[in-house]
Specification:
rod-shaped
Length: 113
Amino acid sequence: MLKPTGPIPPGGERPIGEIVSDLVDEGKAYARAEFNVVKTIAASKANGLKAPLTLLAAALFVGMAALNALAVAVFILFALAMRPLFAALLAFVLIAGLAGLLGWLGVQKLRKL
């Protein structure tokens, strides 16, 4: 990154302003190069994560469908033993309670960090 300078003034030394200007230019060029390296590394890692994250998102949607099927099965099981309205309320309370318990446990684990 060193630039050839013009003719050296009498006395054999470059002016301090020119030296500082060159130093600032070289610092800017170094910072840009480092930023480009970091940007390239981040892009490479992001490209490597596309397929796994897509599969995880698909697994999440399939898991949600399975949870809905389980909720319907719980409702039908309760509906065999009682009126459908009470079966729906009982299934809702049980599943919402489970969700609340899992959320509470998650918050407690986060607070320990």
